[in-house]
Amino acid sequence: MKLHAWMNRSVFCRRLMGFGLVIAIAAVATAQQPAGSQNAASDVSQDRATDIDTRPLPLGVEIAFPNVNWPGWESPEESGRSVDFRPILLTHAGDQSNRVFVPTQRGVIYVFANDQETTQAEVFLDLKSIVSYSPRMNEEGFLGMAFHPDYASNGEFFVYYTNKHRPHQNVIARYRVSQDNPNIADPNSEEILLVLDKPFWNHDGGTLGFGPDGFLYIAVGDGGAANDPHKHGQNLSTLLGTILRIDVDNKQEGLAYAIPADNPFVDVADARGEIWAYGLRNVWRFAFDAETGLLWAGDVGQDEWEEIDLIVKGGNYGWNVREGLHHFVPKRRRRPAQEPKKPEGMIDPIWEYHHDIGKSITGGFVYRGKNIPELQGAYLYADYVSGQIWALWYDTDSQQVTANREIPLPESIPVMSFGEDEQGEAYFTTFSLEGQGIYRLTPRQ
Questions:
Q1: Which helix (H) or strand (E) holds 290?
Q2: Residue 346 forms beta bridges with which residues?
Q3: Are the C-beta atoms of residues 74 and 426 closer than 8 Å to each other?
Q4: Is 373 in a helix, a strand, or coil?
Q5: In which order are the strands placed within the sheet that holds 417-420?
Q6: Are the C-beta atoms of residues 313 and 265 closer than 8 Å to each other?
Q7: Contact partners, residue 253, CB within 8 Å, separation at least 6
Q8: How far is CA 188 from the centre of its chain?
Q9: Is the peptide bond before 170 cis (omega within 30 degrees of 0)?
């Protein structure tokens, strides 16, 4: 996540008109070419451009829950200082209650009925006293939340936050709902599962999600700064720059969880057994497709390319040897005359786009709802800097993107996160001084 990266939107949008999505299409076509074969890539990109549907999707976008009051949040405060409302996620408990949960980056989790006329949210859990958030280091804070698949019976949920009392330390912890009120969690129930110490404040990752296998997956950034200075991305002895997979229903000696026996690096010397995939810079949102079980991730780039990956067991996604489909060379170093051959075993993204289109991907999820048939099976994603949203279709048989269609917005919106309710309908969030930072996608108007 690059929440600090923002620029003049009108200037940026004018630039986009000259480049469009052809650059992204050309990038995907380049994956089929020998390294350094620029002419061949250009020729194929023209062919691929005719195969990929890039027509805009005429869908509606509207503020969701426009009348909700958020207890404990007020802007401006009595001091006159503006405090933006920062909904970092929208999710549900999977317990058939049809409630919506909205955590904020400052550490308050709200809950309310999934009704567009709802006027009052309740505070499910207030963690401001232990969550570190600062506008100057705004990739930290409360970053992720996931409900146990058996939440309806065990009341367990999991959170990912930056520790207020230790610099640049991220915490993954278990909490439980109170026994007396389903809309209030027990603040004294915290059980810390994992602590991640980072050298810098950015690249925190932060997504939590349970897979179809019942294990908890965790996205962890590469530790921060630029260029991955400590080479975490290709180092299996650190948890940084990875997606982890752990068993929260069992424990093993010395751990507050268990490492699944079929994790790919369990028996590899000096490797951390928790790692499921690595070579990732800063996955900002992953999600399992409810129908296929595929794990989709948006990995935030650095100098030139943003990418979408399908995460597989033991996969190496190339950072910091590669950025997207390309050999990575820091800007201050000389780029080789010919791009080196891709190192053996590294996995290409299924899609990338250049920084002429956007500079910070926000990963989403595959839409499986019912209200918008036009979106069925599409992976939703956005760019935080350019304020655009797309729907991407991928054919798993041919392993090709077949469509990448923009969802036009009435204005550019820096999308912080996507979310879905219990029916699988699509929402996205942004920061707001008015408390109306949650939007939903609607059928054609």
A1: none
A2: 316
A3: no
A4: helix
A5: 60-63, 438-442, 426-429, 417-420
A6: no
A7: none
A8: 28
A9: no
Tell me the two tokens of residue 15. 């630039």
Query: Where do the domains of the chain lie?
Result: 9-442
Size of the chain, expressed as the number of residues it contains: 445
Structure tokens at 65: 């829950």
Residues 6+ apart with CB under 8 A from 39: none
Note down pLDDT in tens along the chain; length 445 residues.
544 443 333 333 333 333 334 345 444 443 433 333 333 333 333 345 558 999 999 999 999 999 999 999 987 666 667 889 999 999 999 999 999 999 999 999 999 999 999 999 999 999 999 999 999 999 999 999 999 999 999 999 999 999 999 999 999 999 999 999 999 999 999 999 999 999 999 999 999 999 999 999 999 999 999 999 999 999 999 999 999 999 999 999 999 999 999 999 999 999 999 999 999 999 999 999 999 999 999 999 999 999 999 999 999 999 999 999 999 998 777 777 778 889 999 999 999 999 999 999 999 999 999 999 999 999 999 999 999 999 999 999 999 999 999 999 999 999 999 999 999 999 999 999 999 999 999 997 6
Distance CA 60, CA 263 (A): 42
Partner residues linked to 417 by β-bridges: 429
In sequence order, what are the residues at sequence separation of 6 or more whose Cβ sits closer than 8 angstroms to the Cβ of residue 236? 265, 268, 270, 271, 272, 275, 278
Read off the pTM.
Answer: 0.90
* Phi, psi of 143, deg, nearest 5: -120, -25
Candidates 257, 173, 244; CA nearest to 210 is: 244
| In contact, 276 and 243? CB cutoff 8 Å | yes
**Residue 328 is which amino acid?**
F
List Cα–Cα distances, 424 to 93, 210, 233, 368, in angstroms.
Answer: 12, 16, 33, 6
CB atoms within 10 A of CB 406: 16
**What CATH number has the domain spanning 9-442?**
2.120.10.30
